[in-house]
Specification:
With 349 residues, the protein is α/β, with parallel strands linked by helices. The protein has eleven helices and 19 strands. A five-stranded mixed barrel has the order 6-9-7-8-12. A four-stranded mixed sheet has the order 14-16-18-19, with helices on one face. The protein has a two-stranded antiparallel sheet with strand order 5-13. Strand 7 and strand 8 form a beta hairpin.
């Protein structure tokens, strides 16, 4: 089984630590010893049916990706380079072409490079189940068992029946409002759509030929004309730029009749905002998270992260995110963390 690690994101929701030059997947956000992409890959250690990973990233990140793969002894393949972002469907189609060409069994495990999972044994058990389902010609989607009525994720509604641990997909649901999210969680047959899945490469290509023939033709051109070295496979820029981008969900998953859900309850998070980083971090007795010298009085539920190492004093401050790096300073009430992306993009114009 070929692990395909998608690493094309810019990570602007975690500005100013994460930037287009060094996005969050290349940062040691949740583990001081390993970056998020390194954790994603080493999370598969012990699964004897896994091939070395194929990383797909923006061509500007080639040195970052190679150096971090080398540091964990996983630099066994060329890195696939996107000349421009076109969402997930074209990237995964290019990986499927590579998988069909290089992997005997033709199975892919598609993972985001910037998620965190706390219970690795539970995750690996789900991966094994997904491999079995993919071997039977299914798209095996990892559906996260909801822990709260989240409005920031899409949901997958499942149907009754099916094999234990492998649920039939009834419908994909867009990000809900609060009341709908409450109903989904209460119903017990709705799961967060994690964006992770196992899939036979040939099935994906066959269905894209039906559902997105123009996109697939563009990807095939980009892959055929790619520049190949021992270090990288650089997809052809002209061909790739001509592709109309789309997510794999909209392009294929929501239309296929071959999708199933593998429920996953393993402490998953997409670490998509600073309040989520705070939630996952170790806290003091007043629920503050700090990475350097700090003096706090009458302050609680805060996160302070300084790259310069300067001491910080917080007096009478609650529920705030304070992040300082060489690229900027963020001071935000937690209820505004979804606005960080807009702030970051305003500086990048």
């Amino acid at each position: 089984m070929l692990p395909v690690i998608l690493s094309g994101g810019s990570g602007t929701r975690l500005w100013p630590l994460s930037t287009p030059d060094v996005p969050k997947q290349f940062l040691p956000l949740m583990n001081p010893d390993r970056t998020m992409i390194q954790q994603t890959i080493t999370r598969l250690d012990g699964l004897d049916f896994m091939s070395p990973p194929l990383v797909i990233c923006n061509e500007n990140h080639i040195q970052l990706a190679r150096s971090q793969l080398k540091a964990i002894h996983r630099l066994n393949r060329p890195v696939m380079l996107e000349p421009i972002g076109r969402n997930t469907a074209p990237a995964i189609a290019a990986a499927a072409l590579y998988c069909r060409e290089n992997e005997k069994d033709g199975l892919m495990l598609v993972l985001a490079s910037d998620h965190t999972i706390l219970d690795v044994p539970a995750f690996q058990k789900a991966v094994a189940a997904a491999r079995d389902a993919a071997s039977d010609g299914k798209y095996a989607l990892f559906g996260i068992v909801p822990t709260r009525p989240e409005t920031g994720y899409g949901y997958i509604e499942t149907a009754a029946g099916g094999t234990p641990g492998i649920l039939s997909v009834k419908a994909f649901r867009e990000k809900p409002d609060a009341a709908t999210a409450e109903r989904y969680v209460s119903a017990k047959n709705y799961f967060w759509n994690s964006g992770m899945f196992a899939i036979p490469a040939e099935l994906l290509l066959n269905e894209m030929q039906i559902m997105e023939p123009e996109m697939l033709a563009g990807v095939k051109n980009a892959y055929t004309k790619a520049v190949r070295t021992d270090e990288f496979i650089r997809l052809d820029k002209g061909s790739f730029e001509s592709i109309k981008g789309n997510s794999i969900d909209y392009a294929v998953m929501e239309h296929t009749k071959n999708a199933v859900v593998i429920p996953l309850n393993a402490g998953w998070s997409d670490v998509g905002s600073w309040d989520m980083v705070w939630e996952l971090s170790q806290k003091d007795d007043h629920d503050n998270v700090t990475n350097n010298m700090a003096f706090l009085k009458d302050s609680s539920d805060n996160m302070i992260h300084t790259e310069s190492g300067k001491p910080v004093a917080l007096l009478g401050i609650k529920n705030c995110i304070i992040i300082e790096s060489k690229d900027g300073l963020l001071i935000a009430d937690k209820q505004y963390v979804q606005e960080v992306k807009k702030a970051a993009e305003s500086f990048l114009k």
